[in-house]
């Protein structure tokens, strides 16, 4: 199990607290420092069953500067979104937990973190 976190994020800290309380074994990836490649983002999106626009923090200043809210949300525009996430990792929703069964969840709630834990 791996969890992509921003240590400044309260949702990330809450997810780590719950993982620790449940005795989970996991690896922390500080994705703002260890930035995922476009291919890694594609792989995680596949595991999540989501599209890049589903995990983009559109309210961030960088997102507004890029104008992502206006970008097409379709197959042709998908790579543009993924490249933006790789170039601007602050736009990636957090935390993302990759489960041992090959799936992943965006762990913004206790229920989502527990879901990831159940997939061990």
TrEMBL record:
<keyword id="KW-0560">Oxidoreductase</keyword>
<dbReference type="InterPro" id="IPR006659">
    <property type="entry name" value="Arsenate_reductase"/>
</dbReference>
<protein>
    <submittedName>
        <fullName>Arsenate reductase family protein</fullName>
    </submittedName>
</protein>
<dbReference type="InterPro" id="IPR036249">
    <property type="entry name" value="Thioredoxin-like_sf"/>
</dbReference>
<dbReference type="Pfam" id="PF03960">
    <property type="entry name" value="ArsC"/>
</dbReference>
<comment type="similarity">
    <text>Belongs to the ArsC family.</text>
</comment>
<dbReference type="InterPro" id="IPR006660">
    <property type="entry name" value="Arsenate_reductase-like"/>
</dbReference>
């Amino acid at each position: 199990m791996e969890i992509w976190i921003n240590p400044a994020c309260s949702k990330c800290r809450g997810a780590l607290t719950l993982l620790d309380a449940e005795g989970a074994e996991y690896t922390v990836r500080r994705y703002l420092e260890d930035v995922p490649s476009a291919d890694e983002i594609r792989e995680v999106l596949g595991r999540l069953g989501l599209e890049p626009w589903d995990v983009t923090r559109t309210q961030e200043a960088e997102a507004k500067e890029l104008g992502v809210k206006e970008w097409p949300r379709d197959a042709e525009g998908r790579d543009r979104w993924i490249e933006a996430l790789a170039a601007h990792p602050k736009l990636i929703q957090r935390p993302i937990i990759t489960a041992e069964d090959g799936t992943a969840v965006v762990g913004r709630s206790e229920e989502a973190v527990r879901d990831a834990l159940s997939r061990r």
